[in-house]
């Protein structure tokens, strides 16, 4: 019985609400244009140097999706500022920043497979869903 009571007391101590308060940062700038024909844009900045600017315009595709591009930035603990540029369109979301990792180069065997697939595609060779050649 004593271990159960002790466990309950320990769990209760860890379950107490934390009394630390998070700092509140005010928005020092906010500009936005009202949406017009599916296009919009906005910019905001907080007092702790978080910034975002974004613009969206209707895309030129059958789905009627919106093409969005923009930037956001924030300060790191060492005081340096990170900026990320992004675009989201029919090709997906793509972000660019010096802080983002880059993928390594493809190994040689992967490059060989890509080259072979391109050659077969140029020759009109077609495979079924199971990988069998059908022509």
TrEMBL record:
GO cellular component, one term: chitin-based extracellular matrix
InterPro entries listed in its UniProt record: CHIT_BIND_RR_consensus, Cuticle_Struct_Prot, Insect_cuticle
Signal peptide per UniProt: 1-15
One Pfam family here: Chitin_bind_4
GO molecular function term, any single one: structural constituent of chitin-based larval cuticle
Keyword terms of this UniProt record: Cuticle, Signal
Protein name (record): Uncharacterized protein
Annotated organism of origin: Meganyctiphanes norvegica
Organism classification: Eukaryota, Metazoa, Ecdysozoa, Arthropoda, Crustacea
């Amino acid at each position: 019985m004593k271990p159960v009571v002790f466990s309950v007391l320990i769990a209760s101590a860890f379950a107490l609400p934390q009394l630390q308060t998070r700092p509140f940062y005010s928005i020092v700038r906010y500009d936005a244009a009202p949406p017009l024909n599916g296009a919009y844009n906005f910019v905001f900045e907080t007092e702790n140097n978080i910034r975002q600017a974004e613009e969206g315009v209707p895309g030129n595709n059958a789905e009627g999706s919106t093409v969005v591009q923009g930037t956001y930035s924030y300060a790191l603990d060492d005081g340096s500022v990170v900026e990320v540029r992004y675009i989201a369109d029919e090709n997906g979301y793509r972000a660019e920043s010096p802080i983002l990792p880059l993928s390594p180069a493809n190994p040689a065997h992967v490059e060989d497979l890509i080259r072979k697939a391109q050659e077969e595609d140029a020759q009109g060779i077609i495979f079924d869903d199971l990988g069998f050649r059908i022509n």
